[in-house]
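Lecture notes, unit on binding sites. The following record was shown on slide 14. It pairs a sequence with heme C.
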Amino acid sequence: MHYRRFSIFFVGIASLVTSCTTAFIDEGTVGELPPITRIVTYEADIRSVMTNNCITCHAGPAPNADLDLSNYQNVRFSAESGGLISRMNNAASPMPPSGILPPAVRQLIDKWAADGFPEN
Ligand code: HEC
């Protein structure tokens, strides 16, 4: 009786742990996504990522870290020569600070870099 109840409990815990682990791996892995085959551009893809996730802090008269991500030149500069790509992929110190973005978003940034940071 008690043993039976315990095993049901144990199976419940085990499947909870397994599902969380699987979800975590799926969330973190850009390499498991199908590759993007089209060209990624600032206007079509990257501007909205910045608008949705970054410019509340990185725009306006006093942007955080003196980094204004509200235009093509600055986003390109930070991606090409600064910390934009590494911070967006840094789980220990992510940008945005609230948590690393889903792999599909980070994959867009990586492809934009691979394509040479086109504007249009
Ligand atoms: C809630 C506010 C907030 C949001 C949203 C945010 N940042 Fe930041 N960001 C900061 C702060 C504060 C710092 C400075 C402290 C630090 O480096 O952690 C910073 C620093 C950075 C740096 C390092 C700057 C440097 O000079 O090395 C980069 C790159 C960056 N952010 C990119 C981004 C990107 C890209 C996004 C969106 C995907 C983003 N941030 C979203 C607050 C934010």
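Take-home: The chain is about 55% helix and 0% strand.
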